[in-house]
Amino acid sequence: MNKARQLNEIHSKWFKDCVCELQKTATQPVPGVGNPEARIVFIGEAPGKDEDEQGQPFVGRAGKFLNEMLTSIGMKREDVYITNTVKYRPPNNRDPLPEEKSACYHWLADELNCIQPKLIVTLGRHALSNFVPEARISDVHGKVLKKRGHLHLADGNSIVLSTEYFFPLYHPAAAMYNGDLRKVIIEDFKKIPEILKNYAASREV
């Protein structure tokens, strides 16, 4: 089975089986989109208003900024895969609760283990905390972290991921309110092509 078909089946399964309480207030689920053969996956925290309405991740203002940054390094959305930790919009865009994230972790893990990207780019401190909970984004943004990926479930169990390289960035939405952070995000983003090139050449990021 090719990855595109496998991803479609993953989404169809979790449309029915996801037990996240946020689905009671959200308009619709927002699964990941993009290239099933992508070497890089971008992960945010949760859908916002525009994403909830359109059913796709990163289609609002933050998504437009993400598109601009992809263009700046010679890439486009079709080259990468973009998703969120939580697949349903939290009311009033509040932070998702730990149990809400845990309820969506199997869905996210299935996406990642299907695609098996070389690099996971976390967008924002909440996305980073899913994989490297001890890290502070102010300390590690723009740096490659090597760590066997795990998603820790609310029941104390965890899901092991095949990807072990993470590249934390500030969330694109932060640039909407902080010009200094916008510059930082742009500079960090420029490192991505070299990171992927080094990985391909040496099997290490």
Short account of what is shown:
The protein is built from eight helices and eight strands. It has helices spanning 3-17, 49-54, 61-72, 98-115, 125-131, 137-140, 179-189, 192-202, and strands at 33-34, 40-44, 81-84, 119-123, 145-146, 150-152, 158-160, 165-169.
Describe the structure.
The protein has 205 residues and is of the alpha/beta class. The protein has a single domain (3-13, 30-202), classed as Uracil-DNA glycosylase-like domain (Uracil-DNA Glycosylase, subunit E), CATH 3.40.470.10. It has eight helices and eight strands. The chain has helices at residues 3-17, 49-54, 61-72, 98-115, 125-131, 137-140, 179-189, 192-202; strands spanning 33-34, 40-44, 81-84, 119-123, 145-146, 150-152, 158-160, 165-169. Strands 1-3-2-4-8-5 form a six-stranded mixed β-sheet. Strands 6-7 form a two-stranded antiparallel ribbon. The longest helix is centred in the middle third of the chain and has 18 residues, at 98-115. The two termini are 29 Å apart.
